[in-house]
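Hi support team,

I've been running sequence recovery on a batch of backbones for a student project. Most finish fine, but this one hangs at about 90% for roughly twenty minutes before it completes. I'm not sure whether the input is malformed or the queue is just slow. I've pasted the structure tokens below so you can try to reproduce it. Let me know if you need the job ID as well.

Thanks,
M.K.
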């Protein structure tokens, strides 16, 4: 398991968060009174039925969408727009097709005029398994390779918090598990936190130290499950993994 570290309870604080979208007759309530915290070197998986506000919540935390009420703070500072402390990886990868892998990885760093040491760059490529691909273009890569390049681009900036929106959804099951392993490997070496939105029960349990379930009927948090087995590379074969899978499936079936 991941060894205990000194944790701050103040990395991310979500307090009484709400989000409404304007409708034809009345505002559409998507999120209402959502509260949770995330420590340093911590992970959270977010699940729930389609339309319950998972991606909306992630975009608000990223500073890309304004909330309708409440407060979100990172390191004690309110989030009022994009910040270098938060990285975002989407399902569609977000790679520029006309740029090489090497240029895509360094895109964010170049935009921020940051010089990335070659050693750090090599270490990230090695742990993510994308060495030797710098000269290729996205269309020449597999889906798994493209997602690893997107992860490298976000992580190379050393965000305190990484947000992942269904990052492995379009990838076959075996590659998906390998990418989950890669993410945990980087997580084990680098002190950052991450939040992953997923529809996949096994993925949520393998990656999230806690699993937050959103309820589309109440537009808020249905429950939060503790998941102490996370970080064990053999967790998928343990009885506790299957027990939590059964419990989580039952909760989600109630919401459909």
């Amino acid at each position: 398991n991941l060894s205990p570290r000194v944790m701050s309870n103040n990395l991310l604080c979500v307090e009484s968060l709400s989000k409404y979208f304007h409708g034809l007759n009345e505002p559409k309530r998507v999120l209402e009174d959502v509260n949770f915290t995330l420590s340093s070197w911590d992970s959270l998986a977010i699940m729930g039925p389609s339309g319950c506000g998972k991606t909306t919540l992630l975009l608000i935390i990223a500073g890309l969408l304004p909330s309708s009420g409440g407060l979100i703070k990172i390191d004690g500072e309110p989030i009022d727009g994009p910040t270098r402390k938060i990285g975002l990886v989407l399902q569609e990868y977000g790679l520029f097709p006309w740029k090489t892998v090497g240029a895509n990885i360094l895109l964010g760093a170049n935009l921020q005029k940051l010089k990335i040491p070659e050693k750090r760059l090599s270490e990230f490529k090695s742990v993510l398994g994308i060495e030797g691909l710098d000269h290729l273009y996205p269309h020449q890569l597999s889906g798994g390779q493209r997602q690893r390049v997107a992860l490298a681009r976000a992580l190379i900036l050393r965000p305190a918090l990484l947000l992942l929106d269904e990052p492995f959804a379009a990838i076959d099951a075996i590659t998906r598990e390998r990418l989950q392993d890669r993410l945990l490997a980087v997580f084990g070496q680098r002190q950052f936190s991450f939040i992953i939105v997923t529809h996949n029960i096994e993925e949520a349990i393998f990656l999230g130290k806690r699993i937050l379930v959103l309820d589309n009927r109440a537009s808020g948090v249905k429950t939060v499950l503790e998941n102490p087995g996370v970080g064990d590379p053999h967790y998928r074969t343990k009885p506790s993994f299957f027990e939590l899978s059964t419990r989580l499936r039952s909760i989600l079936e109630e919401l459909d």
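--
Follow-up from support: It reproduced on our side and the slowdown came from queue contention, not your input. The CA atoms of residues 122 and 176 lie 23 Å apart. No action needed from you.
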